[in-house]
Amino acid sequence: MPPPERLARAALARVAEPGDPLVGRWLAESGPLAVWDALRSGGAALPGASAERWAGLLLRARRARPEADIGLIGELGGRFVCPGDREWPTQLDDLGVTRPIGLWLRGACSLRFVSLRSVALVGARACTDYGAHVTVELATGLAERGWTVVSGAAYGIDGAAHRGALSVSGATVAVLACGVDVSYPSAHRELLDRIAAGGLLVAELAPGDHPTRGRFVLRNRVIAALTRGTVVVEAGRRSGALNTASHARRVGRHLMAVPGPVTSGLSAGAHRLIRAEATLVGDAAEIVELVGEMGELADPGPSPLVPRDLLAPRAALVLDALPGHGDSTLTEVAGGACTSEADALARLRELCGLGFVERVGERWRLAPESTRHARVVPASAHGGP
Does 77 map to a domain? Predict the structure, then answer.
């Protein structure tokens, strides 16, 4: 982007609130230079702005110093990325007029490249031990598969997501509701530094800007649009993670949720999503199966087997013909299995050798439970005449 337009966008990032649709329409219709010139000159209000709104924007415009902001981000080892730049993730354009004016980045990774295969993990700040454990497992599994973990660097699920990715030297991106030079929450200062060293800190707000309640909500749309899918790990009925989920649905991203205990209020929001629209996931492989390329399927794993699952069909029928208690004659067993007495006798002898039945004189009965599970079914039992 030409330097004048870059400076204009840097100035507007200081003046406008993130995701302001009115400013977004001005940019789409007139371009950043015209919008910034109108604000800087203090002239007539642009279309759609009330007198009060225009006055507030003018006050902010007088304090904007885009050259200083771009110089400061450079001193931090970061940069200001605008639409049209090679590093700009074009999936953010799906936000339409609420697309970021630009993004302030801190970290060596290319935002465009690390977001190509990325998943958002979001959830409650006051999460349970269960939620934190599941999040770390998901984040490490995704990172080990080469996926970038994106979250908001808040307490709870967000922090667990970033730490899980970092624990296996994976890429992680924190989308902030403040400037990239502001450590918020302050207890995450070290975590934010680690993310900047191995991944990226991303913000719409200029350096030095502090978060507000509304900015946290607006930040969520960037998390949703940047990634291929959003996973809600743990969320109450009024969790901010549900706001991220709504943005993911709006821009056509995959929406997933992790189930939790039905007795936990922090699972209520996730369960509501699963009932309505989200796909239930339990591990990283199931997430990748949804958001990955064709053929990246989750391994269902081996089904649990019990010894009788390995019996040949005819042997299983004879075994089913024996009563749960008491014993039966050969004739009764053959009738119950709908086969000849000769065939029933052959099958009973096989079952006796495998420990499933035992003979009592001329009668047959099920062997004790301990005997049935003590023997290994040989390969010959897979078939049968």
Answer: no
pTM of the prediction? Answer: 0.80
Residue 302 inside a domain? The answer is: no
> Is the distance from CB of 88 to CB of 222 less than 8 angstroms?
no
The domain tally of the chain equals: 3
The range of the structural domain enclosing residue 326 comes to: 307-382
311-334: b or e for each residue (b if 16 or more CB lie within 10 Å)? bbebbbbbbebbeeeebbebebbb
Find out whether 342 and 300 touch, Cβ atoms under 8 Å: no
pLDDT in tens, 178-224: 999 999 999 999 999 999 998 999 999 999 999 998 999 999 999 99
CATH number at residue 326: 1.10.10.10
Spatial separation of the C-alpha atoms in residues 208 and 286, rounded to whole Å:
39
How many angstroms separate the Cα of 82 from the Cα of each of 1, 23, 166, 228, 332? Answer: 7, 15, 27, 21, 83
Give per-residue pLDDT as tens, 20-64. Answer: 999 999 999 999 999 999 999 988 899 999 999 999 999 999 999
134 and 158 both lie in a single domain: yes
